[in-house]
Amino acid sequence: MDMENHKAGVEPGTEKLGELDVKANPITEDIAPRISKPLMALFYAGAVVCIFVASIEAIIPASFFVQAVGPWGVATSSLWMLAAYLIGYVAMILPTRRLADIFGQLAMFWTGLVFFVVFTGVSGNASVASTFAVLRAFQGAGAGMMTSVCMYVVGEQASDRSRALLVSGLALAQLCGIGAAHALGGRLAMDGKFRWAIYIAAPLAAAPALLCTPALLRCSCTSNREPFGSRLFKYDI
Fold first, then answer.
1. What is the pLDDT of residues 30-47, one digit of tens each?
2. Membrane-crossing residues (predicted)?
């Protein structure tokens, strides 16, 4: 074997190198396209606002529930008003990652955005608490889609050194949103405008839409897109 390798100009111990290279090359096809630093900065700002607004909407009903009971004509616990949103939110975190592989991150982000804005308006106009809780589940699903895409892109694009810092910043935005929910909702409830505590999330969602979309468009334009059928039936974990 060594004599054959010597005649072929291959040094001993390297005869498998070409085979290994061939097997290693396809791995590079799955590497995500890199986003420029300015686009990444815009995207991160949008992700911070997105998670901040999602956190506000998760908690804010607790701050005006007493005022809402009168118009709705019911006496029920505020637990479902909070839980319904969180159920929808958490339920969409993992499926969105898979759906983004099929339909693209941009499509899933905007689907979540549309869900969030539409059901923000519809739930804010609910006439009974039970309807409000159901509609908030869909609102939470939209927030979960947007948050999932934001977290995935930040984790995918950030370097090993900065990833922990950036994710910590998103967690801080979530805590700030929870704190702002009580202050903002309480103030609006004192003025008898508890429904506006829900409606206010719709215009705030414009910031993530404007800031995150350019980076997601860049990913869509530069990524190596497989045929839709291949992406749909690809079950690699």
1. 455 678 889 999 999 999
2. 41-66, 72-94, 106-126, 132-153, 165-184, 196-217
